[in-house]
Design the sequence.
């Protein structure tokens, strides 16, 4: 079971880059890494997914080192609206062993 | 598309009563997930269906919980009998391609068992 570990909380200021790291030491060969964002009273929302190296989309980048035992979500130039809980999820294409981390509560300050 | 639809949005019941939560996934999605979220335990996967077939129910807490997916557009999560420790927000999510694909979450059902 690929258990994940994330920092409980992080603070940042508007305009800064934020990097949130997730540890998944027991990640399996077939596992992908996915990050979700959750606002209060809403379901999580997909941000980005990757298998190795680097993935970038319009909202974030995901960095995965060669050993894949960790991953880093990078949010460029955060705004107040990025205040949310961010979850790291590890699981394979069959949905086996889907494991959400405890989430990182990001607080963006003006 | 209206997204994943869950009902009811809020449910308050008394201990011992049967509770049924309902989910309509996004049309065309072949995978459906039920999650439970609490402050203490975070977001937990309860059960995962692929093409209406339960693939992984290892997260279902105990025999009081059961889930069905009679067709591609409907699923239920039933708790019988309910207990106060079942109080949580229950999310349903669906995706195109199993656990790997982007999961689209519903708004959740907030269950309170008194």
Sequence:
């Amino acid at each position: 079971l690929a258990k994940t570990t994330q920092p409980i909380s992080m603070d940042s200021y508007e305009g800064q880059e934020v990097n949130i790291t997730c540890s998944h030491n027991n990640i399996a060969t077939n596992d992908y890494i996915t990050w979700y964002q959750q606002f209060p009273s809403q379901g999580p929302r997909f941000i980005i997914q990757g298998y190795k190296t680097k993935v970038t989309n319009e909202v974030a980048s995901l960095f995965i080192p060669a050993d894949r035992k960790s991953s880093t979500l990078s949010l460029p130039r955060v705004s107040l609206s990025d205040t949310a809980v961010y979850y790291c999820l590890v699981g394979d294409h069959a949905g086996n062993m889907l494991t959400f981390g405890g989430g990182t509560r990001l607080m963006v300050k003006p | 598309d209206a997204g994943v639809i869950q009902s009811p949005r809020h449910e308050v019941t008394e201990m011992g009563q049967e509770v049924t939560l309902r989910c309509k996934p996004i049309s065309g999605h072949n995978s459906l997930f039920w999650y439970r979220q609490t402050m203490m335990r975070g977001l937990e996967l309860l059960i995962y269906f692929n093409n209406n077939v339960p693939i992984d129910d290892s997260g279902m807490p105990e025999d009081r919980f059961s889930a069905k997916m009679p067709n591609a557009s409907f699923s239920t999560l039933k708790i019988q009998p309910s207990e106060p420790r079942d109080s949580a927000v229950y999310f349903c999510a669906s995706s195109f391609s199993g656990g790997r694909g982007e999961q689209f979450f519903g708004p959740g059902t907030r269950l309170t068992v008194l």
User: Anything to note?
Assistant: Chain A touches chain B through 24 residues (CB under 8 Å). The longest strand of chain A covers residues 84-91. The mean pLDDT of chain A is 90. The radius of gyration of chain A is 13 Å.
